[in-house]
Amino acid sequence: MGRNVVVTGGGTGIGLSVARRFAEAGDQVTIVGRRRDVLVEAAERLGPSVRPLSCDLADADAVAALVGELPGRIDVLVNSAGSRESRAGAGPHAVLARWRGDFERNVLTAVLLTESVRDRLAQGGGRVVTISSIAAVRGAGSYGASKAALHAWNHFLAAQLGPSGITANVVAPGTVAGTEFFGDRLNEVELVRRAGRTLVGRVGEPEDVSAAVFFLASAEAGYITGEILHCNGGELLGR
């Protein structure tokens, strides 16, 4: 019998790759995100073990309604939903919108759902894995600060869940191609430049990150909690 897995942001990019990895392992996967059409298309591609549910995870009322649709026992929760606030500007209103937007999209989307399903996480073996970013440790304005907040929250979460045998960890990717995050900014020139900053000579792919998530969700990783797994090909160290 497969595990019950919930993946937020599971319609595209890293989240989609994570959902595929668990589905191929025989698990029952629920993918959650804001765009129902994207989720439905992803579920159709991934197979009958994947169920799409649309929800604005930064909206407390929407999350409360979503919880009623989720499995009664959740073996693995992967918080992959997140994005960068695109609004720019130097005035106080623009700054507020940018910082609030990044906090809502990257912190609240993880915290609201995780706290809402804590009593459903499988005792003695549940796993929570949250996707952060290299920006959390290199610094990147409001986006980096919001991702760094996930690191502090994860330390708290691991302490709270540990007595129940549930682990909580973070995967912090570097540059990952094949996602919507960069839009058209990750052109060939930029790919080459970013690959040159790594120690392995290439940028990441979604499958690199989903492999790390899958490991942290495994039984073999049961003694690892409260940790941040940097998945960046050495980009953090640079050249």
From TrEMBL:
Query: Does the keyword Disulfide bond belong to this entry?
Result: no
What positions does the domain Ketoreductase occupy? 3-179
Task: Tell me the leader sequence span.
Answer: none
Task: List, alphabetically, the CDD domains matched.
Answer: SDR_c (cd05233)
Q: What is this protein called?
A: SDR family oxidoreductase
Organism per entry = Streptacidiphilus fuscans
Q: Which UniProt keywords apply?
A: NADP, Oxidoreductase
What are the protein's GO molecular function terms?
oxidoreductase activity
Which PANTHER family does this entry report, sorted A to Z? 7-ALPHA-HYDROXYSTEROID DEHYDROGENASE (PTHR43618), 7ALPHA-HYDROXYSTEROID DEHYDROGENASE (PTHR43618:SF8)
The source's superkingdom equals Bacteria
